[in-house]
Write a structure and sequence with these properties.
The chain is of the alpha/beta class and 439 residues long. It is 38% helix and 16% strand. It has a seven-stranded mixed sheet with strand order 4-10-9-8-7-5-6, with helices on both faces. Bound molecules: pyridoxal-5'-phosphate.
Length: 439
């Protein structure tokens, strides 16, 4: 649904909440200014309403979580039923049937579907923790502490995940506290084919794998927060080959790209490359903080059986409400033909973005795949223009559209909407962006 005319954003109620938040929340969390943010009151489908009653189209789907849209009816129903019966259990002592069913489902959707045997899961509360569980698993398997990760990567902000996140904005402030087990290499980028030769990159990776005790190769098959970066076609097959040769565990971080975001169930399905471990989160539950590290059974069995005390667990592990939401969301995703849906919406969105780009600067290249798309904002010299991207984010809010920027330079407008974004909503949002650029 399209937004009605919005007179002032943030409205008076949002402003009041912002004043109160400023006094009580760590100040690095929420960006608070005269023009930002709005406080959300409710959300449904592709729309969000704020506390002042304004309606917005959300082009982010809440950081890529609500691919099915907000409050999808089957998930809400399952959640309500589960909440009335059991919404907390002892995930690692006396667990629930929901946890079993979720682990079975994750195995079926991943390794069984890839004809790679069965999978075993380690459930976590966030994507960052799923990555850390995967890194610990790789160490259990190989006893080699090194991790090969890639430029532009984002794996989360726990100490382990941030150590493998290349972006200095996140690592830099804590670098004296971080150990030096992560080694970084270039991420060969589809849009810059002339900058990367397969032979040279292979030689570079071989050198790193020879020189360092690398037990894990950790990679996003398509980079999300790195700015919607799709790799060159030879990259993932090369990593698979090198991981096998150097006896490293190949970990795909699909926390952002998993569950149809890129137009396939998993991004790695675009290249038919099977990892040893896949990390999943965000859309998994359609909105509950639950994520998963899913590995080939033989790999996961590097963990010793629990003797009554687990060496890797947490209080809320396998929360039954989250498991039930995940089961329902996954069933809903599999019931619908989301490949077709996502690719059709992507085609329309790409055409609308390209129509805008045809007007020239400040628009640069379009990036991404499926419904994880980016649009570069550049200055007159064609260089990244993060300040202008920031202005667009604020201007779009007044025009009824929620959009965010990403990439290390923060100049890429990021489009990760719900899969049911309508043609009308696409036209409206892109028209607003065109108008914002001319005012
Ligand atoms: C690829 C990737 N991995 C890991 C994470 C971290 O997930 P979380 O924010 O749930 O810790 C993110 C978050 O954006 C992500 O995009």
């Amino acid at each position: 649904m399209l937004p009605e005319l919005i007179t002032s954003v943030p409205g008076p109620k949002s402003k009041e909440w912002a004043t109160r938040l400023r006094a009580c929340e760590s100040r690095n969390v929420t960006f608070l200014s005269e023009d930002f943010p709005i406080f959300w009151k409710k959300a449904h489908g592709t729309n969000v309403w704020d506390v002042d009653g304004n309606r917005f189209i959300d082009l982010t789907s809440g950081f890529g979580v609500a691919g099915l849209g907000y409050t999808p009816e089957p998930v809400v129903a399952a959640m309500q039923e589960q909440a009335g019966e059991l919404y907390h259990a002892m995930g690692d002592v006396h667990p629930t049937a929901e946890k079993v069913e979720l682990c079975e489902t994750l195995s079926r959707l991943t390794f069984e579907n890839w004809n790679a045997g069965s999978g075993k899961s380690l459930l976590t509360n966030s994507g960052s923790e799923a990555v850390e569980a995967a890194l610990k698993t790789a160490f259990m398997v190989t006893r080699k502490p090194g991790v090969l990760a890639f430029n532009g990567s984002y794996h989360g902000l726990g100490y382990g995940a941030v150590t493998a996140t290349e972006n200095l904005f996140f690592r830099g402030p804590f670098s004296p506290q971080l150990a030096n087990w992560a080694v970084f290499a270039p991420y060969p980028w589809e849009l810059r084919p002339n900058d990367f030769s397969a032979a040279e990159e292979e030689a570079r990776l071989r050198e790193k794998l020879t020189r360092h005790p690398i037990g894990a190769i950790l990679v996003e098959p398509i980079q999300g927060r790195g700015g919607e970066v799709v790799p060159l076609g030879w990259f993932l097959p090369l990593l698979r080959r090198l991981a096998d040769e150097f006896k490293a565990v190949l970990i795909f971080d699909e926390v952002f790209t998993g569950f149809y975001r890129t137009g396939k169930r998993f991004a790695c399905d675009h290249w038919n490359v099977v990892p040893d471990i896949i990390c999943l989160g965000k859309a998994l539950t359609s909105g509950f903080p639950l994520a998963a590290c899913v590995g080939k059974a033989a790999i996961m069995d590097a963990w010793p059986p629990s003797d009554g005390e687990a060496i890797h667990t947490s209080t809320f592990l396998g929360n039954p409400l989250g498991c039930r939401m995940a089961l329902t969301a996954l069933a809903e995703m599999e019931r619908r033909d989301l490949e077709t849906r996502v690719n059709a919406v992507s085609e329309k969105l790409c055409a609308a973005i390209d129509h805008l780009r045809a007007k020239g600067k400040p628009w640069g290249q379009r990036r991404g795949r499926g419904l994880i798309l980016g649009l570069e904002v550049v200055n007159a010299a064609g260089k990244p223009d993060p300040a202008k991207a920031g202005q667009f984010i604020e201007q779009m809010l007044v025009r009824g559209v929620i959009i965010l920027s990403g990439s290390p330079q923060r100049n890429v407008l990021s489009f990760t909407p719900a899969f049911d974004l309508s043609a009308e909503e696409i036209d409206f949002a892109l028209m607003q962006l065109a108008n914002a650029a001319t005012t």
